[in-house]
């Protein structure tokens, strides 16, 4: 019956990871998949998570019953509060609500389906470049047109702010605009606060709909409030908006799929109807979300002591990444590698857009067994004190011997 | 400002309402969402809400389909507890699962359905992916069929079927059509009606089949009836999509419950299959399930697999591990597996004995109605045959909560309340 089904092209980041795993070179380095690694190059299950799992396992009052369709309420409300801040007017006025989703992707998908099916939006914009899955999520959710707004200035290795503003100015009314709340994936370049203000002005003027993607709150700067500045600014301006939140990175709960969709309305009376419509969408997709990860995050976020512990873990992760950024930049500048390298420390979060071209990337993989994405994105977490010299040396080698 | 002061003069009592109304109107007018209507209330949830509000100490909730022990409490399977302890010892990481779930989980799951030594997985003919329990697996399957099924895009479903089948299939882009299934006159299987309708389905269409413990009726075809259906479905070149949410939970025997699926494969059908561990492992909220396609070649299976991943990635990227890890541990650890088989038989046996007790108590009450269907039917649910007015009376007068269609969740019956239930049912049906 399915003889005509063609094999789909492999997804780049997974194909890259596969190649890395199969490589037998002892000094190989994986700068591909976006997951945190310790300085020993190992995955890190946060101590507060381990502690919670032991606590949950010992709790005889818990069971495996279905969660409500819209998820574990303590998680959803705490996640929305973590995002908007307890001073948020929309939160205080009952105009903001949270819905547990299947990590960031799941939250994007539920939000996108709601906007397409109920909101009747059909056009969505994301940055160029952006996370590879954005377009697929929105087009599969029912959007009919996916477009880009300029973002990365390859020559300056910085934000193409004028290009961004021009493209948003030309976006048709009602277009949904995906905004990375912080730690832009894949570039690591975020707008300044002043630039965010101008973006907000434009979105308001052009009647566009802001959809924030917040996958790194806390993980970027080490400070939850600082990383939420852009979302909170839009909230304080009275925007209606949605925000997809992921706890994959900041809680290290990648495979438990814990996420939240925050929905902010101008009027509290729309909250119940919106929730009831989203209930129908979720029911037709997966009925209700998974329990385990939700209990971990929901419990921690509602417990001040555990929250403090968690915050210290986030700071540990963010600080290590920042030190790797400093270390890489220092070494490249010391080696006098051609080009400028300040973008490595100007950028923030897990990823860095190195500015390396496709030929340099190919060489890094083929000749030096250093795995990174075609567009030159590296995962800073893949760097550690054990391999940073090797990586700097190899980057120097490919930059000096490659003519792009 | 002047409008408000004039209101103050003319109707002070309406000022507040009007002022609120004005601000509501203006913020609603600026809102993207003022046109959003309340969705229809969930019928089953409504039953539970009403049950919670009821203060009658004898109240019974026969609505929601989750297993309860003889004390009416949720049941965590011993095998599950043991599996969790084993998993905790391993200190596993939280790294992303593959998009399709762990290969170990997928293999164990399809082998559970088809038999440990089955020729299909041995020959690599299955494309199996983890899904978000049964619903998520159905969703992946319907999305795949919507994009790739080479025949008609209508999915034929039994009447009645699980309430969520219809919106789910439509959401995936499929049309929904029906074939006769339940005979309200006998509270049994309308075998002839089903065959007639199936024979009328256009060639190269898709047909949805409940592998065992039909939801919501509890009415399953007999093995010889399955054989007939398999023949007709093959003759009409229809594509069978099995929904198996109760393997082991129905009869207590995992092979018996999976027999229709295995029969169809032996008969030469290529099938789609959705599996759930919500009920048979009590893993409800952990969302463990799988979707499989049995293909005609390894190459086909590989191509299909790659397309399934393309469907999953924009939904939620990769699946949650906890439930899947528990299921894998149970199925691949011999002592846990035999413990699980005991646990699931225990659940099935309790349900079967509640059916027997209900039927015998109805006879004791002096009911002259034929209640054979209570024990003829199988699984979590029983279509009692009660009419909506009778259901209403049952709820109003006896605080017994069930859905309007007369469906009861047998799992909500215990040895302590079965007499009361029989008495109540007799009162409203005599």
UniProtKB/TrEMBL annotation, chain A:
Its cofactor is pyridoxal 5'-phosphate. Gene3D superfamilies: Aspartate Aminotransferase, domain 1, Type I PLP-dependent aspartate aminotransferase-like (Major domain). It is an enzyme of class 2 (transferase). Pfam families: Aminotran_1_2 (PF00155). Its main location: cytoplasm. InterPro entries: Aminotransferase_I/II_large (IPR004839), Asp_trans (IPR000796), NHTrfase_class1_PyrdxlP-BS (IPR004838), PyrdxlP-dep_Trfase (IPR015424), PyrdxlP-dep_Trfase_major (IPR015421), PyrdxlP-dep_Trfase_small (IPR015422). One of its GO terms (biological process) is aspartate biosynthetic process. Its EC number is 2.6.1.1. It is found in: Cytoplasm. Keywords: Aminotransferase, Cytoplasm, Pyridoxal phosphate, Transferase. Residues 27-393 form the Aminotransferase class I/classII large domain. GO terms for molecular function: 2-aminobutanoate transaminase activity; L-aspartate:2-oxoglutarate aminotransferase activity; L-cysteine transaminase activity; pyridoxal phosphate binding. GO terms for cellular component: cytosol. Transmembrane segments: none annotated. It catalyses: L-aspartate + 2-oxoglutarate = oxaloacetate + L-glutamate; (2S)-2-aminobutanoate + 2-oxoglutarate = 2-oxobutanoate + L-glutamate; 3-sulfino-L-alanine + 2-oxoglutarate = 3-sulfinopyruvate + L-glutamate; L-cysteine + 2-oxoglutarate = 2-oxo-3-sulfanylpropanoate + L-glutamate. Homodimer. In eukaryotes there are cytoplasmic, mitochondrial and chloroplastic isozymes. PANTHER family: ASPARTATE AMINOTRANSFERASE, GLUTAMATE OXALOACETATE TRANSAMINASE 1, ISOFORM B. Belongs to the class-I pyridoxal-phosphate-dependent aminotransferase family. This is Aspartate aminotransferase. It comes from Daphnia magna. The gene is Got.
From TrEMBL, chain B:
It comes from the Eukaryota. Keywords: Aminotransferase, Pyridoxal phosphate, Transferase. InterPro entries: Aminotransferase_I/II_large (IPR004839), Asp_trans (IPR000796), NHTrfase_class1_PyrdxlP-BS (IPR004838), PyrdxlP-dep_Trfase (IPR015424), PyrdxlP-dep_Trfase_major (IPR015421), PyrdxlP-dep_Trfase_small (IPR015422). Its cofactor is pyridoxal 5'-phosphate. Residues 58-425 form the Aminotransferase class I/classII large domain. The keyword Transferase applies. Signal peptide: none annotated. It catalyses: L-aspartate + 2-oxoglutarate = oxaloacetate + L-glutamate. Its EC number is 2.6.1.1. Homodimer. Belongs to the class-I pyridoxal-phosphate-dependent aminotransferase family. In eukaryotes there are cytoplasmic, mitochondrial and chloroplastic isozymes. This is Aspartate aminotransferase. It comes from Daphnia magna. The lineage of its organism: Eukaryota, Metazoa, Ecdysozoa, Arthropoda, Crustacea.
């Amino acid at each position: 019956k399915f003889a005509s089904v063609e094999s789909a092209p492999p997804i780049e980041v997974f194909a890259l990871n596969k190649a890395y795993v199969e490589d037998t070179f002892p000094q190989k380095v994986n700068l591909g998949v976006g997951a945190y690694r310790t300085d020993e190059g190992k995955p890190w299950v946060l101590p507060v998570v381990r502690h919670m799992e032991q606590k949950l396992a010992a709790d005889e009052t818990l069971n495996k019953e279905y969660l409500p369709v819209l998820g574990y309420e303590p998680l959803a409300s705490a996640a929305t509060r973590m995002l908007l801040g307890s001073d948020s007017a929309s939160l205080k006025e009952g105009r903001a609500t949270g819905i547990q989703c299947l990590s960031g992707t799941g939250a994007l998908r539920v939000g996108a389906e709601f906007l397409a099916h109920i909101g009747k939006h059909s056009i969505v914009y994301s940055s160029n470049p952006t996370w590879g899955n954005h377009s697929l999520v929105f087009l599969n959710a029912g959007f009919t047109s996916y477009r880009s707004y300029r973002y990365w200035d390859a020559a300056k290795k910085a934000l193409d702010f004028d290009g961004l503003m021009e493209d948003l100015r030309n976006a048709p009314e009602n277009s949904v605009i995906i905004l990375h709340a912080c730690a832009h994936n894949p570039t690591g370049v975020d707008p300044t606060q002043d630039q965010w203000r101008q973006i907000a002005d434009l979105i308001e003027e052009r009647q566009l709909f802001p959809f924030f993607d917040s996958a790194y709150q806390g993980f970027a700067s080490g400070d939850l409030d600082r990383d939420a500045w852009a979302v909170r600014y839009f909230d304080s301006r009275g925007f209606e908006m949605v925000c997809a939140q992921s706890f994959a990175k900041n809680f290290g709960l990648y495979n438990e799929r814990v996420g939240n969709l925050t929905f902010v309305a101008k009027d509290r009376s729309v909250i119940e109807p919106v929730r009831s419509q989203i209930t129908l969408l979720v029911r037709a997709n997966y009925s209700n979300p998974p329990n385990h990860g939700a209990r971990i995050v929901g419990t921690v976020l509602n417990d001040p002591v555990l929250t403090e512990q968690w915050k210290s873990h986030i700071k540990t992760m963010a600080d290590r990444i920042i030190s790797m950024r400093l270390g890489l930049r220092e070494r490249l500048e010391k080696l006098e590698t051609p080009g400028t390298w300040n973008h490595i420390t100007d950028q923030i979060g897990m990823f860095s857009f190195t500015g390396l071209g496709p030929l340099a990337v190919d060489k890094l993989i083929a000749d030096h067994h250093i795995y990174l994405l075609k567009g030159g994105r590296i995962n800073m977490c893949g760097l550690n004190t054990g391999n940073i010299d090797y990586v700097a040396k190899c980057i120097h080698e490919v930059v000096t011997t490659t003519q792009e | 400002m002047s409008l408000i002061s004039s209101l103050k003069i003319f109707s002070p009592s309406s000022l507040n309402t009007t002022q609120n109304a004005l601000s509501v109107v203006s913020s609603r007018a600026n809102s993207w969402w003022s046109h959003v209507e309340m969705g229809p209330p969930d019928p089953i949830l409504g039953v539970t809400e009403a049950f919670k509000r009821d203060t009658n100490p004898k109240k019974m909730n026969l609505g929601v389909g989750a297993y309860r022990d003889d004390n009416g409490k949720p049941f965590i399977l011993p095998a599950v507890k043991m599996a969790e302890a084993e998993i905790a010892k391993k200190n596993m990481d939280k790294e992303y699962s593959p998009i399709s779930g762990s290969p170990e989980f997928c293999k164990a799951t399809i082998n559970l359905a088809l038999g440990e030594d089955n020729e299909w997985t041995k020959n690599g003919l299955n494309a199996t992916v983890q899904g978000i329990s049964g619903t998520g697996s159905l969703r992946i399957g319907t999305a795949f069929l919507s994009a790739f099924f080479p025949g008609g895009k209508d999915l034929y479903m039994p009447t009645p079927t699980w309430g969520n089948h219809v919106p789910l299939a439509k959401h995936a882009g499929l049309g929904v059509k029906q074939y006769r299934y339940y005979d309200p006159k006998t509270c049994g299987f309308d075998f002839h009606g089903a065959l007639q309708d199936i024979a009328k389905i256009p060639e190269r269409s898709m047909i949805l089949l409940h592998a065992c413990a039909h939801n919501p009726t509890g009415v399953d075809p007999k093995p010889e009836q399955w054989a007939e259906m398999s023949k007709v479905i093959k003759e009409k070149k229809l594509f069978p999509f099995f929904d198996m949410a109760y393997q082991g939970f129905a009869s207590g025997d995992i092979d018996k419950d999976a027999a229709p699926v295995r029969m169809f494969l032996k008969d030469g059908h290529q099938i789609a299959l959705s599996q759930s561990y919500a009920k048979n492992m009590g893993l409800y909220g952990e969302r463990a399930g799988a979707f499989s396609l049995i293909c005609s070649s390894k190459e086909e299976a590989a191509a299909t697999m790659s397309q399934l991943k393309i469907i999953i990635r924009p939904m939620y990227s990769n699946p949650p591990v906890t439930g899947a890890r528990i299921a894998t541990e149970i199925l691949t650890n011999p002592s846990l597996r035999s413990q699980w088989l005991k646990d699931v038989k225990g659940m099935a046996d309790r349900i079967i004995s509640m059916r027997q007790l209900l039927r015998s108590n109805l006879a004791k009450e002096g009911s002259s109605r034929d209640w054979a269907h209570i024990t003829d039917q199988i699984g979590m649910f029983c279509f009692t045959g009660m009419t909506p007015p009778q259901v209403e009376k049952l709820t109003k007068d006896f605080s017994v909560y069930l859905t309007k269609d007369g469906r009861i969740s047998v799992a909500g019956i215990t040895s302590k309340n079965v007499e009361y239930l029989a008495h109540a049912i007799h009162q409203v049906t005599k």
